[in-house]
Amino acid sequence: MANLNSLGYSRPAASMLARGEPMVWLTGAGLVVGLLMVVSLVAFVFLRGAVTFWPATVLRAELTSGIVAQGEVTRTESFTPDASFLSALNAADRDRAEQEIKHGHGELKRRLVRIGNFEITGEHFMWVEDFRIAPGGEKYPEWLVVLERMSWGRFYGTPVAYLANGEVVADGPAAAWAAFEAGDRGEHAAEGLVLRLVTSGGQLSDIEVSEIVRGYRGNDLDWADKLSLYVSRWHEYLTAEPREANSEGGVFPAIFGTIVMTLGMTILVVPFGVMAALYLREYARQGWLTSVVRISINNLAGVPSIVFGVFGMGFFSYLVGGSIDAIFFADKLPNPTFGTGGIMWASLTLALLTLPVVIVATEEALAAVPSSMREGSFACGATKWQTIQRVVLPRALPGIMTGAILAMARGAGEVAPLMLVGAVKLAPELPLDMTFPFFHPERSFMHLGFHIYDLGFQSQNSEAAKPMVFTTTMLLMGIVLFLNAAAIWLRSRLTRKFSGSKF
Amino acid sequence: MSKTTTPGKSGSFTGRRYSRKPRRSVLWVDALATRLIALSGIGSIVAVSLVGLFLAWVVLPLFLPTEISKKLGMPVSGVQSESGTPMTVPVASAIDNYGLMVWEMRTNGEIAVQALDGGAILERIQVGGGIVPTAWAFGVDTGPVAFGYADGRVQTGEMKWETRFLADAEVPAAALALEVGETHIWESGLLVRTPEGQLRHQRLGLELADHIALGDSAIELLDLAVTPSGLVLAAIDADLKFHHRRLTMKTNMLTGKVRVRARGGDTSLPGLGVNSRPAFSFLGLDETGNLALLLRTDGSMVRLRNQDSEFVVSGRQDLVPNPTAQVSSVTYLNGRTSLLVGDSEGSVVVWFPARAAQGQEPVLQPGHVLEPGPAAVTALTASARSRMLAAGYADGTVRVFNATNERLLGEDRLDGNVIDRLSIAPREDLLLVTGAKEAGLWNIDAPYGEFSMGALVRPVWYEGYPEPTLVWQSSAASDSFEPKLSLMPLIFGTLKATFYSLLFGLPLALLAAIFTSEFLPRGTRARVKPVIEIMASLPSVVLGFLAALVVAPWVEHVVVEVVAVLFVAPFGVMLGAHLWQLLPRELAARLEAIRPLAVLVSLVIGGFVGWHLAPALTQLAFAGDFKAWLDGRVGTGLSGWFVLLIVPASLAVGWLNVQHGEGLIRTRGLGWSPLALAILDLVRFLIATVVAIGLALFVGWLLNASGWDPRGSIFDTYVQRNALVVGIAMGFAVIPLIYTISEDALVSVPDHLRAASLGAGATPWQTAVRVVVPPAMSGLFSAAMIGLGRAVGETMIVLMAAGNTPIMDMNIFNGFRTLSANLAVELPEAVQNSTHYRTLFLAALTLFLMTFVLNTVAEAVRLHFRRKTSRL
Hints:
Chain A is an alpha+beta fold and about 500 residues long.
């Protein structure tokens, strides 16, 4: 080999560079990071979303300052206090804090307690640092109850008495609570029933039973109780109307709005998308014009969704809707009927947005049908439409369905255009109901995606809303992921089915 | 295939005969299907392409030329002398909200109300009961008025259009036949049929209160300002004494008489009494009533400021530097901040106070110089709605401008007249021109006068700003607010978002695609790809929400940790690879299936180490407090340079290592055992790392020593919602897109090329880099373009996680506002067909075109690539 070497050849084994192991590892790291990103994000959302409704323990923390914080612990964290934080404390607290800092690697532990009782405290949450709690002041009282109410958020207190029409029926925590549990609550409850509780501040507070959605003793739940509470909260979440500026209650109108809007969009987009693809692939003469059209359609798939929203607002709501109003609803002007965002305009806008997706998918499916099959059909004397109807379309159907499902997934997850064409924070009426004409295309609607945006960003009380946002996020992601997984599954089945059969 | 059984004629042995012709219905259905499919197919395609066209159609009116055109001629309202010219000159006038009538006050103290269609005089009101006022002031449009007299007294009052709706029984019979829009003269006003069919009567009402004595000598100049706490009145009398009063008005419920209570003082200011200078020709109070401007005909201006209820001279300035020119017309622009000064040589200059340093008196700046006119400026008037103004000249020329963008909106002439007075209707659709001999009504056709192409992209000098700037600020609480519509901050934000998201996402996606297509077994690949595709389907609202409410608050506490992980984790992977090389070849080959796992482990270890290095790094490089370091309060710029330079330095060192180290080893290392070579390689890698760090530090030190500090530009004060967070979140959106397309491109490189390369003795890595990637390059490029397009148009993530402040700041730790987020924020509130609305559509069109171009380029390249690979 020495003579070879003298000619300038070298053995590959002499070079580590050729093997490129570090570079291969770097590319591998790219993939690993990508996969980690997806998995961690999905896992994070599903974990956070799933635990929202699991009841937390109810803490009663008696602080050195004499204040009593009472409520559910929503978050525990360690933080590094800065100098101004420490200097604001009184001497005793500062001593304890410094002690803790010394033992805890420079960090302090604190808990975010949902103290509720908003009409009394004016706050929903309170940070409780561990050093502030008086010695022995951390308790989990047996009779501390959590009430979920129609308004004002949650209430934490210890029952004192149960009153009917102003008269004490049951006295003492156990009796009062038993009386409360025995009767109905919420809207089924009789008038005049009142549960009297004592708050953390020692104040007495009367709460009408008809105001109470759910009540339980936070520290006296066994596993089965917690599970049933969890299930009941999920049930409420999926079927009830929102309360408390969307931060409590359910998201049924948003689920309903999302489904109706997506279905409307699908009904609009699939026939037209398939027909456009049929025209392009089967009818139009293939030439430069069709390729230009094809490129443009591909491009439109990449146009930002907000641009479609702008178009939908200007064209559908203002121009078309405005004209409809001027002709048919002139008596209601200047209040717009169709001339503003509505579910029909949202469906149409999203249909336009997803039209390229369907066209491209259908075209691919049509192209995958071997031309020999068409020729065979023609040879048997079938007309063009008969060939398409009986030979081409059945064969392309899975591909078309993949396109339709992808379009649905995209439509269900899209929010930006909806903000311009009719998704609202709170829609009093569903777009589909029992009053004539049953479907109300002009109504604005609630949407899960917009719900997330609104709750996370426009909410007055975003800390209280946060768990709900996670649940809604989980729900929306669940829907979209399910649809996508269906499309992917369909596609892989399709490739398996047809990959063997070549003509 | 159509079967028809035709009995009778025998032919086939089945007893059936196949017809050669299909049934009529089949043909009919076929023809129908063809038409229907063609129709709806073309219809759908047209509908989709309508998007761009419609956007352009909405935007178009912004670019249409503007003009003013004469509607009709009118007689002047003043009583005319025998020669036909009026003996008086108009001093003030205003058109009503409906554009039907105008009031005009002349120097003789007479207010004439005139119908705009034809000029019939509806009413003449004599102010002062026969005593001719010597000075006058009018609030915005109509409302409070004040008149000053020769005896030093001032009379205030209220002048407004009185509108009432009448029943048919109350009006004369002639008015009953009025069609919609037609007018009828009645009771010193006009009756008009509204579009709703009602009859509306409108006339001018003037209520005057008691006189207030300011002094003994004649009031020469008067102005008033309407402030939230009441009226403020300022006057100059013939003794050049300055009077100011704060007025509170009370209406007597029984008599309807208005009683005025005045508080204030008279100031005899030393500098004012000098009579040798030309007389004052203008007195103006600003919106707050605390600042008075006095202007002489030679252009010298004195500014008086209210200090503890006492007006003192706070500045002097010359507003007409040209010595030959005289101030010939002055008025405030809407908002009473900008002063319009017209001179005898035809120039009109807009002066406004630029924001000054703390404690310093702002100086008026000649913010806008309008196109010079042909003759002396004789009339200037400002619209009460926007920054529109009209200028009249001594030769009869009339021009309408927009003050902010200096655009000439229209020009016309009232021949043979000196223009005495102009009034712009409140709706900015009519302009009344009063000349010396005749008057006329002009249509103003400039609905989008505040728009100009230049103002979209070039800095514009707005009122109160120290210099011309690029600003996007579309609305504010105050009425006199001027929208500032420059798209540049939004385009900058879009580019910033795109840059940072691709900085993170593009390399990651390309690397992942190469690994998937070249180094992953087929079975694993089929399982990995859908997972990444799932990532593509994550709704962006979810990403935005997580970025803003989870990632942003978390990253804020661990910035250094995150940055350290970004740098140390790749190092960990590289180190892991070098350690892997130490394994015997056979073992490594057998373990190849778990190599991704090893990558994961080294990545995690690297990340872990990076995370725990961070506190030490903070102490070492950022003086213990990263945010203080960012603010420039502690530490030096060296560590910033290091962060910026470490990647280029590593690349440079790596390249040198390959170029010069490799040949040496190939010749000297012949016959070494693989383990020895691997150890050597590891040692080289470690040395290269040290050298790269050293190089980055050295260059950073040089740059720092020459006085450049990356803080203040690329690194600056930390804001919670920033480009770094957006970059990470947007990674989720662009990575799967780029990954999928580039992986497809790599896979479609034919296998025989790989086989040939491997067969010729190339390693898989050499095959990937030298054989597979080059033909797939155009596909990778198109993937990057499409990723770019997605990043440009992404809305929800930036809307939620970018903070949405339209600022132009390179700082990675600061927010921005993109075109798309701006649309989502502002379009729902924009008034339909307003300039703001159309400008937002222009932003949408820009976005549309940007992505369209990017995608077209990508598509063209992709087609090229497909043709090329098909030849391979």
